Amino acid sequence: MLKKRLRPVPKLFTLTPESPAPVPDYLNGVRIAFARGDAFAFIYRANVDVLRAMGAEVSFCSPLNDHQFTRVRRALVTGWVSRA
User: Fold this and answer.
1) Which residues lie closer than 8 Å to 62 by C-beta, 6 or more apart?
2) Of 39, 28, 33, which is closest to residue 65 (Cα–Cα)?
3) Would you say residue 74 has pLDDT above 90?
């Protein structure tokens, strides 16, 4: 039978909040559209926040319901198809 040495429990510590490093504005002036609606029901909020922090103009539209899709160079389609 092997004897294992137990390490002492570390002392309690507290975490101090640190401000995140500033995000470069690589997307300044870029317009990004997220597909959103009945068929596209899931978006990570943090992704939208980072894109905005980087200077992007973020908009949402429904490919199924909007008659005019937002004018953008690229569209980011995320999520899954809802089957309710």
Assistant:
1) 35, 36, 37, 38, 39, 40
2) 39
3) no
